[in-house]
Amino acid sequence: MKVLAPVKKNQNYQVKVEDLSYQGMGVAKIDDFPIFVNDVLPGEEAIISVTKVKKNFAFARMVKLITKSPDRVESVANVYTQTGIAPLQDLKYPAQLKFKQHQIESDFEKVHFQVEVAPTVGMTDPTHYRNKAQIPVREVKGQLETGFYRRHSHELVPIEDFYIQDREIDKAIVFVRDLLRKYKIVPYNEIQNSGTIRNVMVRRGHYSHQMMIVLITRTSDLPHSDEIIQDIHEGLPEVKSIVQNINPAKTNALMGRKSKLLFGKETIEDSLLNLKFAISANSFYQVNPTQTEKLYSLAIQKANLTKNDVVIDAYCGIGTISLAVADKVKKVFGVEIVPEAIEDAKLNAKLNGIKNVKFKTGKAEEQLAKWQADGLKPDVVFVDPPRKGLDESLINSVVKMDPKRVVYVSCNPATLVRDVQLFSNLGFHINQPIQPVDQFPQTVHIESITVLQK
Questions:
Q1: Paired sense of beta strands 310-314 and 275-280, if any
Q2: What angle do CA 61, 64, 68 make, to 5 degrees?
Q3: For residue 118, what is the DSSP state?
Q4: pLDDT of 262-275, one tens digit each?
Q5: pLDDT by residue (tens digit) across 52-77?
Q6: What is the pLDDT of residue 398?
Q7: What phi and psi, each to the nearest 5 degrees, are found at residue 398?
């Protein structure tokens, strides 16, 4: 027998908001039936209009606020919520930090797993922190514009101040946009796969202030490229590298396979934890340097390293953790699937005169299985996987290596919970509070450090 939902599409209801979902939407219930509502906060009463009804839940939009939460921020710009740049911007920052701590707690509670979660480590100023921007270029009302897509669409909303990006990056994007207009460069049309300029990517060193501009084009020919380079060089003195990346495919992938250097050097330099890092157009480099230093410092501190330790850094990227622990231990082995990242990691080791680190290109789970078969016995294993978490075979290899500690840097509480359960079944348990660190203020993303020990 089909059970009917207690709500109907396009009907209005008065509700009290109980919680926030992991996507930052308000959660209200009618007869225990969850309704996810945009733009409302826990404790608020509101009139909502149901937009979609599914078997076990519904979505709704807020029509009118009846009572407001003391944690509500009034002076927010709708454009940041519309585009999903800053979905938590209407929540006061201390409440954002509590939301992230609570999110980890509730994900563990769902599987009846007892953990302690420490308060989230936040920022003094939780705005304008991103050191990298990837901005689409499209035609809007007959004019070339830069901005961001409206949520769940490919409709570009023109934006000049991105709120969470380095202000100098915002200025550089507007400067480049005006140049593209001046030289009548045709913006990309994704329906027809036509036009020239698809995206503008800007990276800026937090400490060095060196800037890189990547012009991502559909065509290998960029009209007026000499004039554009000259104008950027004169107008933006921080720019040390201009790269053209060519992406002719009809795809959502940002970058194409071919890049050419138009001006300056292939890389810019920045420092992190007193180490120098060379950053190329394709490098993965953490986007919030202030919080990355806190995150990695805490991870290293919790690893409790000694001079005789052997360390494995799975998912090592451009070698950030590997190089930061190198002077504290005997030997570090790093593995990463992206060949360019490993090239960068080797270059960064050379740049810092570090000789006790060995980097390998490959899948982390396959390389750890090889190292384990070769009899490598690490004292500490760092894992910093992508959102999908760890492969079960990697967990098995780590457990067989029998390290003293596993330090798990997670960017997704759901996969962290799953992986911690797997470790726990194999005798490795959490021995101190999980530590969330807010890498992405104003957004729902959550980073955390978990230490597992036999």
A1: unpaired
A2: 105
A3: P
A4: 999 999 999 999 99
A5: 999 999 999 999 999 999 999 987 78
A6: 93
A7: -60, -45
CA gap 339, 336 in Å, rounded = 7
Distance CA 354, CA 211 (A): 26
Q: Is 179 exposed, middle or buried (0-12, 13-18, 19+ CB in 10 A)?
A: middle
Paired with 410 in beta bridges are 448
Q: Is beta strand 310-314 parallel, antiparallel or unpaired with respect to 380-383?
A: parallel
Q: Which residues are catalytic?
A: 411
Q: Is 209 exposed, middle or buried (0-12, 13-18, 19+ CB in 10 A)?
A: middle
Provide the token pair at 269. 């330099």
Place of tokens 């930052």: 24
In 10 A of CB 361, how many CB atoms?
15
Nearest-angstrom CA–CA distance, 101 and 120:
6
Q: Are 361 and 342 in contact (CB under 8 A)?
A: yes
Domain 288-453 CATH superfamily: Vaccinia Virus protein VP39 (3.40.50.150)
Of 314, 410, 383, 387, the residue nearest 104 (C-alpha)? 410
Residue that is written with structure tokens 């710009």 in the block: 77
Q: Give the per-residue SS3 of 366-418.
A: HHHHHHHHCCCCCCEEEECCCCCCCCHHHHHHHHHHCCCEEEEEECCHHHHHH
What does the alpha-carbon distance between residue 399 and residue 379 come to, in Å, rounded to a whole number?
Answer: 12
Read off the pTM. 0.91
Query: Buried b vs exposed e over 23-56: b needs ≥16 C-beta within 10 Å?
Result: ebbbbbebeeeebbbbbbbbbbbbebebeebeee
What whole-number distance in Å separates Cα of residue 111 and Cα of residue 107? 7
Question: Boundaries of CATH 2.40.50.1070 in the chain?
Answer: 132-272
8 Å CB contact between 396 and 371 = no
Q: What is the DSSP letter of 32?
A: T
Q: Can you give the length of the chain in residues? A: 454
Q: Where in the chain is the domain with CATH 3.40.50.150?
A: 288-453
CATH pick for 12-72 out of 2.60.40.1930, 2.40.50.140, 2.40.380.10, 3.40.190.10: 2.40.50.140
Segment 277-297 shows an average pLDDT of 92
Which backbone phi and psi does 34 adopt, to 5 degrees?
-75, 140
What would the CATH number be for the domain defined by 132-272?
Answer: 2.40.50.1070
